[in-house]
Task: structure prediction
Amino acid sequence: MRETLGGSGVAGATWALVVAAGSGERLGIDRPKAFAVLGGRPLLAESLDRLDRCPWVDAIVVAAPVGWEEPAILLSEELATTKVVSCVSGGATRADSVRAAFVEVSDEALVVLVHDAARPLVDDGVIERVLEPLSRGFDGAVPTLPVDDTLKRVEDGRVAETVPRERLVRAQTPQAFLAPVLRHALEGDVSGATDCASLVERAGLRVAVVEGDPRLLKVTTPADLALVEALARSS
Ligand code: C5P
Result:
């Protein structure tokens, strides 16, 4: 399923794909995670609103959970977004959802941002940071946070080794890519990919690391939802 919405319809240079098709089983609610209630409205509303207002973003495509395309469209209309140009049905995996959304991206696009709807508190600062390396010859850029805990590799319920954490980071979204680079990466094998940067890395291309944002935590459990709600209120 694919719906073209009443956005500007203008193919701008920077497109944002919002992947929102995950089931969110660990939230334990009767609807997909993107429709969990955050501050009295669906979780998806937060990223849509914020990306729509971002001056760096020209057009937005949403990958909605199968069967939830219509509510996603209605939400976009209720928010009076001006940049949401299309809503597609998501796929079985995150990468499949990105692929489905990418089909809508104009051939004129220069840059594509991919963002998890499950990280509602996206802001202009992190978007600016991931876009910047693309003008310095990088193919993509990822916001990251340091790893604070000690890391262990586990086998059969026992610690096999303690992994040095100095060179490890936690990757977040939004991630930014030159549009032809992401298009090419999505044409290949996407199995096992939990983010888009890993696809571009696999192709041997250059992905920059920029400072992430602790507020961009990914909602997985009810406790995460409560924390994001508190963070949203305190801003
Ligand atoms: O499952 P996880 O929380 O890691 O998913 C990250 C993001 O990818 C979420 O915003 C989720 O909605 C999205 N996703 C998707 N299609 C899938 C699985 C996840 O759009 N099949």
User: Anything to note?
Assistant: The pocket of cytidine-5'-monophosphate is lined by residues 19-22, 33-34, 63, 90-94, 97, 116-118, 218, 220 (CB under 6 Å). The longest strand covers residues 140-146.
